[in-house]
Design brief:
The complex is a heterodimer. Chain A is mainly alpha-helical. Helices cover 57% and strands 6% of the residues of chain A. By secondary structure, chain B is mainly alpha-helical. Helix content of chain B is 84%, strand content 0%. The chains are: A mainly alpha, B mainly alpha.
Chain lengths: 67, 188
């Protein structure tokens, strides 16, 4: 799974700590998602997508073989 | 003596990490710098936990050796003091966590063991990290105890110094840990 978290954070001027507070999760979880080491739950993915005002599929994407 | 010295050094390191986090909390950071500081605080908290745990084990070992081998009263008293300090530092961990994560409600529950209350407040990503750590340490524990039993058996045979009591204790620990794990998994 790939995410555009870092790019979207830069676009909207959020650091990891601020995004974590908005998404009601820990900074560590944001960091894990950005590094592709952890796949977030649907709820967290939707929350993050809402913060960036983007559809979930614009924030997170999968390789063909993962689907 | 060297075990007590190591314990005291580790206690000093724990207190130093605590002071470092307190000093970072007094400063204001923003942007990428804030992320960097949060990451440093997380690492410092982990260092505190590591030093406290290792110090606790060393102080138990120091006390045990003082009681069995040296029977030196001063050493025994110093070992007990060091053990009590490390015990309190370990118990202080949940309060310390609130210093690191002030927005989180890490309330040490009196009805639940600490490990469970930590899981209660951890989010999905943190639980993933905890699970990874627990899985690796569980595997290592099994492996280590198995080899400890094997070495104790070899030692008993080659030296005629029976380690049967320790072997039975280690086997019981191995049994209890694995049965507990399997029961938790089975009853979910």
């Amino acid at each position: 799974m790939k995410s555009r978290l870092k790019e979207l954070r830069a676009r909207d001027g959020y650091n990891q700590t601020q995004l974590a507070k908005h998404a009601r999760i820990s900074r560590q979880t944001i960091s894990l998602i950005e590094r592709g080491e952890y796949m977030p739950s649907l709820l967290i993915a939707v929350r993050i997508a809402h913060i960036f005002n983007e559809p979930v599929e614009n924030v997170f994407s999968f390789e063909e073989e993962e689907l | 003596m060297s075990l007590i010295a190591i314990s005291i050094i580790l206690i000093a390191m724990s207190i130093f990490r605590y002071q470092q986090i307190k000093s970072l909390n007094k400063q204001n950071f923003s942007g990428e710098e804030e992320d960097g500081v949060e990451n440093r605080k997380y690492k410092m908290f982990s260092d505190y936990a590591l030093c406290t745990h290792v110090s606790f084990v060393f102080s138990i070992l120091a006390l045990s050796l003082s009681l069995i081998v040296t029977q030196n009263v001063i050493m025994i008293i110093v070992s007990v003091i060091v053990l009590i300090i490390t015990f309190f530092l370990g118990n202080y961990m949940s309060h310390f966590a609130q210093l690191v994560y002030p927005e989180r409600t890490v309330t040490p529950s009196t009805s639940k063991p600490d490990a469970e209350s930590v899981l209660d407040v951890a989010d999905d990503g943190e639980k993933y990290v905890i699970l990874d750590g627990l899985f690796k340490s569980q595997s290592l524990l099994n492996f280590s105890l198995f080899f400890a039993i094997a070495f104790s058996v070899t030692y008993s045979i080659t030296t005629n110094d029976s380690e049967i009591f320790s072997i039975i204790l280690m086997a019981i620990v191995l049994l209890v840990v694995n049965v507990k794990y399997q029961l938790v998994v089975r009853n979910k």
